[in-house]
């Protein structure tokens, strides 16, 4: 009996240690600060786009933001950092060095959690692909122990002609050749507007075919592989277009394409290298948009101001992914997490979670240690009592999304 009690205490102390999450967001900004053809200062004004982005970023709160379609100039990529991200006293966001032509990609990151180790360029056409190596600012960083994450941003050729598909295939081959020659492995994300219509396209086949000594390949974290274009079965993951009618800049046709992706290495699906995908979604995609606009029929999946900003800012919707880390990162130490979210640990038949006045719990998901979702709550309450009586004894990972946009992870020991 004494041994069991000591073991219980050990488990509580061990698994009560602080963990953290990285929120990754990818977004095609639709000619940010760039006038091109029918996209003008009248229908795609950069000052207005800054306002929209401030609203969207304030809602999504990304730690890592990757973007397509920024005007290819240092002033334009810096404008996002200074006018959108580092505002109202926030100073934590940094960016990579500028690289690109015509329409650029860029990465912005929360420097309290991650830092940029290096960057590289893959000469793909019609736009280059950027490779960024980040490292997490773990509590063991002073001992030289950390976790690396590669973010590769691409923007493949648009269009449905055979020549367009050939261009996408050629670019994907260059990307996979780079991975093979670099012997890259571990935590790798490939994100961007890939303009793919089907998983049968050569580009997607290349991305998902093992290559090199490490037999590296990418995976769709949603495991929703098929013919995405104008297919009702994939209505929940379509990312373009937010509009059904033209204003001269936004594409039309409604939501009927999955052009935007965050593909991942196997390490991020298994968690073998310190990070594990726990969620991946298209922001404001409620599954009721098929061949319709973002705002009609009514869309209640995000706050009204966020919905309006998404509709006006771009014809693409942003993607949001959560990566779980077993380490406490510098911006999310135990001292600033505990007052915000309180829970019982260990838990018997009920998991009781509450947050301070003025904040509510939007979602509460409970996962097994192998990543399977066991229980889920959705609502808007400051207190949630989740019935866990049907669960086996053991350790579970809880993911709580709060009304202020923050996401917290914590471990729970289920006992009798």
Q: How would the global form be characterised? A: globular
Largest sheet: 6 strands, mixed
Give the termini separation.
15 Å
Q: Write down the CATH topology of the largest domain.
A: Deoxyribonuclease I, Chain A
**Second-tier CATH architecture of the largest domain:** 4-Layer Sandwich
Can you give a write-up of this model?
- The protein has 416 residues and is an alpha+beta fold.
- The chain folds into two domains: 2-16 and 334-414, Sandwich (Immunoglobulin-like); 20-325, Endonuclease/exonuclease/phosphatase (Deoxyribonuclease I, Chain A, 4-Layer Sandwich).
- Helices cover 21% and strands 31% of the residues.
- The protein is built from eight helices and 18 strands.
- The protein has helices at residues 2-15, 46-60, 74-85, 162-182, 202-207, 266-270, 304-313, 334-337; strands spanning 20-32, 64-71, 93-95, 103-110, 114-122, 129-136, 148-155, 188-193, 260-264, 275-282, 319-325, 342-343, 350-354, 361-368, 373-381, 383-387, 394-402, 407-414.
- The strands form four sheets. The chain has a six-stranded mixed β-sheet. The chain has a five-stranded mixed β-sheet with strand order 5-6-7-8-9.
- Helix 2 packs across helix 7 (304-313).
- The two termini are 15 Å apart.
- Residues 1-17 and 331-339 have low confidence and may be disordered.
């Amino acid at each position: 009996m004494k041994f069991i009690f000591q073991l219980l205490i050990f488990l509580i102390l061990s698994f009560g240690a602080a963990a953290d999450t990285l929120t990754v967001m990818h977004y095609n900004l639709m000619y940010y600060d760039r006038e091109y053809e029918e996209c003008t200062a009248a229908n795609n004004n950069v000052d207005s786009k800054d306002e929209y982005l401030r609203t969207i970023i304030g809602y999504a709160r990304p730690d890592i933001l990757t973007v397509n379609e920024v005007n290819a100039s240092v002033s334009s990529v810096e404008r996002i950092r200074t006018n959108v991200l580092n505002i109202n006293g926030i100073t934590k966001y940094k960016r990579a060095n500028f690289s690109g032509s015509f329409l650029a990609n860029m990465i912005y990151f929360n420097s309290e959690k991650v830092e940029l180790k290096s960057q590289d360029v893959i000469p793909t056409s019609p736009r280059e692909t950027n490779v960024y190596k980040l490292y997490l600012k773990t509590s063991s960083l002073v001992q030289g122990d950390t976790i690396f994450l590669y973010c590769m941003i691409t923007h493949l050729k648009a269009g449905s002609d055979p020549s367009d598909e050939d261009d996408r295939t050629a670019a994907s081959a260059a990307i996979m050749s780079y991975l093979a020659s670099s012997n890259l492995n571990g935590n790798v994300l490939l994100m961007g507007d890939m303009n793919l219509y089907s998983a049968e396209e050569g580009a997607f086949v290349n991305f998902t075919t093992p290559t090199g000594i490490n037999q590296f390949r990418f995976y769709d974290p949603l495991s929703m592989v098929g013919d995405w274009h104008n297919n009702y079965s994939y209505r929940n993951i379509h990312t373009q277009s937010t509009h059904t009618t033209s204003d001269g800049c936004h594409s039309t046709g409604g939501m009927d394409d999955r052009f935007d992706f965050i593909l991942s290495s196997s390490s991020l699906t298994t968690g073998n290298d310190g990070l594990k995908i726990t969620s991946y979604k298209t922001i404001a995609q409620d599954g009721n948009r098929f061949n319709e606009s973002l705002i009609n029929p009514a869309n209640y999946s995000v706050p009204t101001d966020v919905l309006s900003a998404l509709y006006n800012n771009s014809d693409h919707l942003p993607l949001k992914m959560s990566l779980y880390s077993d380490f406490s990162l510098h911006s999310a130490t135990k001292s600033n997490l505990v007052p915000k979210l309180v829970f019982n640990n260990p838990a018997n038949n009920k998991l009781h979670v509450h947050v301070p006045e003025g904040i509510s719990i939007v979602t509460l998901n409970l996962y097994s240690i192998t990543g399977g979702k066991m229980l889920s709550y959705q609502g808007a309450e400051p207190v949630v009592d989740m019935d866990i009586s049907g669960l086996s004894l053991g350790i579970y990972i809880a993911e709580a999304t709060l009304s202020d946009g923050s996401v917290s992870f914590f471990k729970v020991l289920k006992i009798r």
